[in-house]
Amino acid sequence: MKPINNYIDHTLLKASATTTEIGKLCEEAKLYKFHSVCVNSCYVSLAKELLEYSDVKICSVVGFPLGAMSTKAKVAEATQALSDGADEIDMVINIGLLKGKDFDGVWKDIEAVKKHMPNNTLKVILETCYLDELEIIKASELAIQSGADFIKTSTGFGTEGATLNDVKLMKSVCSDSTSTKIKASGGIKDHETALKYINLGVDRLGTSSGIAIVNGVASSSKY
């Protein structure tokens, strides 16, 4: 197993996040050598400036947190974020289309974003708290079919974050794919919980509690 800090996308996505807080996030990511910082797209250029001489990658969310934006809007946001310096994109699946069984609409939405970033990492957020088991499996299949590099459990803004059972379902689909990985996010706040997900085969953790996880203490943060 690689060092636990290398699994972590150090995350700050709350609506009230300030430039000062983003600056602190980036400094923490450099200090603890996290894999990336994950920020809203308006802060990508700032993060790029602050992390210019580090190995920390920049992740931007797209269509966040509802996933109900038009495909053109998601493509435009992703394209701008990449232009501003993002290395990775975490986009939210169109949950309503999935639940309405418009599966072509779901995969075309994801595929359109991936086409604009063939050389960058795309993580597709399923928002599993709104899905039943069959929908989680179907959403995972559609994301993989559409070229997702990762499937991700949650935004952290839904009714629940990651669960071990949801990750097991996602893993059952990924076992047939040699390239698509899993990111767990939402509610991962301590070292013990983080290890449970890693031991299930998760390759990335989205959390605002990365420092607590690395230091082996609990955190009161939601995401």
TrEMBL record:
Key word Lyase present: yes
Cellular compartments annotated: Cytoplasm
Pathway annotation from the record: Carbohydrate degradation; 2-deoxy-D-ribose 1-phosphate degradation; D-glyceraldehyde 3-phosphate and acetaldehyde from 2-deoxy-alpha-D-ribose 1-phosphate: step 2/2
Active site: 90, 152, 183
One term of GO molecular function: deoxyribose-phosphate aldolase activity
Reaction it catalyzes: 2-deoxy-D-ribose 5-phosphate = D-glyceraldehyde 3-phosphate + acetaldehyde
Keyword Cytoplasm: yes
EC number: 4.1.2.4
Gene3D superfamilies: Aldolase class I
GO biological process: 2-deoxyribose 1-phosphate catabolic process; carbohydrate catabolic process; deoxyribonucleotide catabolic process
Keywords per UniProt: Cytoplasm, Lyase, Schiff base
Superkingdom of this protein's organism: Bacteria
GO CC list: cytoplasm
InterPro entries with a match to the protein in the record: Aldolase_TIM (IPR013785), DeoC (IPR011343), DeoC/FbaB/LacD_aldolase (IPR002915), DeoC_typeI (IPR028581)
Entry similarity comment: Belongs to the DeoC/FbaB aldolase family. DeoC type 1 subfamily.
Biological role stated in the UniProt entry: Catalyzes a reversible aldol reaction between acetaldehyde and D-glyceraldehyde 3-phosphate to generate 2-deoxy-D-ribose 5-phosphate.
Protein name: Deoxyribose-phosphate aldolase
Provenance organism: Flavivirga eckloniae
Gene that produces this protein: deoC
